[in-house]
Amino acid sequence: MEFILSIVIANIFILLALLHLFWVIGGQWGISATIPTDLNGRRLFNPGWQGTLLVAIGLLFFALINLSAIGVVKVPFENHYVLYGMYVISGIFFLRFIGDLKYVGIFKKYRQSVFASRDTYIYSPLSLFLSLSNGILAVLL
């Protein structure tokens, strides 16, 4: 059970990292629905390639942590650091699930944009899944 869940989580992180790398090299697919906008339709931020690359690297690192937790990948440090990493991942995605209470997350007030709709039905539930699954795996492993 833990093995399969870790593989699923790692694959999600790898796919998300590949999508971010696609955006780093100039790809546009899906980008318009991934950045929150204000009430006037203006983007709340314009991520540069450096920030997007950093997110991709972070997501790959999260995949590595999940794969090392089940022994698929060997890391040069003690296993309890891997478990701490899983708790950190769980916390990061729980905060993403909660959001900023205005434009992002499950408790957002503004819900009239393409991003807001996708956030409600895709991004926030995915964040909750990644939070809970990493936390549960950290406890079980």
TrEMBL record:
Keyword Transmembrane helix: yes
Coiled coil regions in record: none
Highest taxon listed in the record's lineage: Bacteria
Record keywords, A-Z: Membrane, Transmembrane, Transmembrane helix
TM stretches of this protein: 6-31, 52-75, 81-99, 120-140
Protein's name according to its UniProt entry: DUF3995 domain-containing protein
